[in-house]
């Protein structure tokens, strides 16, 4: 689980965003909202500063659904109140009182998935290995865990505890 990128002040923030754009580096921001109609994410990079990141719904992930392979708005809603990694596409500082940063979460997710696949090929992930993740859902028989790169691990009730439990909610909550 990632922490937001740290900035000393607004000048440092703008310098790091510019460098990230030029070098295709990932910046981590806090998702403060999702537009209810468009699914656009709004990110805060530094509390108290008028610099906000925006991720259009099509840039939330590359994993769409349905015939048209469209990104479901649920993917955007799942990002609210979480730290998300993004690539910087554009910085509009024409109005210094409100700087709009256009971002892509999709590019970050693709980069992470590529790294995961390389690690699997190298044998760095093995059966019964412990990985860090965030519980995103619990039902009567399973726990759903986000392990990054839009990959969800599913733990069956038998895999959750060494002792018998009736329901996954006895051990995990969202």
* Main β-sheet, spatial strand arrangement: 1-2-3-5-4
Radius of gyration: 18 Å
**C-alpha end-to-end distance:** 15 Å
Number of strands: 8
Order of helical and strand elements: HEEEHEEHEEE
Bin the strand percentage: 25-35%
Average per-residue pLDDT, rounded, comes to: 85
Give the helix proportion (percent range). 10-25%
The largest β sheet comes out as: 5 strands, mixed, barrel
Main structural class: alpha+beta
Question: Outline, from the CA principal axes?
Answer: elongated
Q: What is the count of DSSP helices, taking H or I runs of 4+ residues?
A: 3
Low-pLDDT regions = none
Question: In brief, what are we looking at here?
Answer:
The protein is 21% helix and 28% strand.
Describe this structure in words.
There is one protein chain. The protein has 174 residues and is of the alpha+beta class. It has helices at residues 10-23, 73-77, 105-121; strands at residues 26-34, 41-44, 51-55, 83-92, 99-104, 134-138, 142-146, 152-156. The strands form 2 sheets. It has a 5-stranded mixed β-barrel with strand order 1-2-3-5-4. A 3-stranded antiparallel β-sheet has the order 6-7-8, with no helix packed on it. The longest helix has 17 residues, at 105-121. It is elongated, with a radius of gyration of 18 Å. The two termini are 15 Å apart. The mean pLDDT is 85.
